[in-house]
Specification:
about 15% strand; 10 helices; alpha/beta; Rossmann fold; binds zinc ion; binds magnesium ion; 7 strands
């Protein structure tokens, strides 16, 4: 969700975390770590959720965007309202998204993690249907995905559910990535995170190591949150496993 909103004064700052004092280092024993990776804009080269809204949603989706950017609603509510405005069926959305360009570095990252027994998981505030379509097309369906869930109601209209939301999430995300990171067999101190956007903010303040690009990197710099800037997932893989 990153389109310009002309009427927005400035993006809301819901609550700023304390400046991070984590010492940033590549974990020397990666076998004790999990690697979590964002999807939209990190594995795909563009934000697929945005592209879907642009292509298939009624124009009113922009009004919800503006309300969110003004801080009037959470990103979770914004997405729920926007998704209800999509006028396309499953097959159309799958066809639209499956061939979108991805960062091919995800293939190597996945291989390197698998060889070392390091769990790699995609944690996304986007749409499960789209993520699964892209992964299937690329032969990467075995990578576990935690995300929002897109379903069609009896009336044929889409709606979004949030199985991994957290009431404590200070960014109001649909999928609270820090809650997800701490819910498996690993702690946040044993988590490497890779992301690019707003939904990555909560986890970026608490994960042991954060690779950031785009808006996330800008935000981390502004907030004093320690991060490793990156351009591609090939980049990240080399730095994790050199
Ligand atoms: Mg993203
Ligand atoms: Zn959160």
């Amino acid at each position: 969700m990153n389109q310009a909103c002309l009427s927005a004064i400035s993006p809301p700052e819901l609550e700023k975390p304390a400046a991070s004092s984590r010492s940033l280092r590549i974990p020397s024993d990666l076998s004790a770590f999990q690697v979590l990776c964002d999807f939209d804009g990190t594995i795909t080269k563009t934000d697929v959720t945005d592209a879907i809204l642009e292509a298939f949603a009624l124009p009113a989706f922009r009004e919800w965007q503006c309300r969110w950017e003004r801080g009037e609603i959470t990103s979770r509510e914004c997405m729920a309202r926007q998704v209800e405005l999509i006028r396309a069926d499953r097959a159309t959305l799958i066809q639209f998204s499956a061939d979108l360009p991805i960062d091919e570095g995800i293939v190597t990252l996945n291989q390197q993690c698998a060889e070392r027994g390091i769990p790699l998981m995609i944690v996304s505030d986007g749409l499960d249907l789209i993520i699964e379509a892209v992964l299937r097309r690329r032969g990467l369906s075995h990578i576990p995905v935690i995300s929002n869930r897109l379903v069609w109601n009896g009336n044929g209209l889409p709606s979004l559910s949030f199985p991994s939301a957290s009431p404590d999430c200070w960014i109001g995300a649909g999928t609270c990535k820090c809650a997800v990171a701490a819910s498996g067999g690993f702690s946040l101190k044993e988590t490497v995170y890779i992301g690019d956007g707003r939904s990555d903010r909560c986890i970026s303040t608490v994960a042991q190591q954060v690779f950031a690009k785009g808006k996330l990197r800008e935000w981390c710099d502004l907030q004093g949150v320690a991060c490793e800037p990156f351009e591609t997932l090939t980049d990240v893989t080399e730095r994790l496993f050199r």
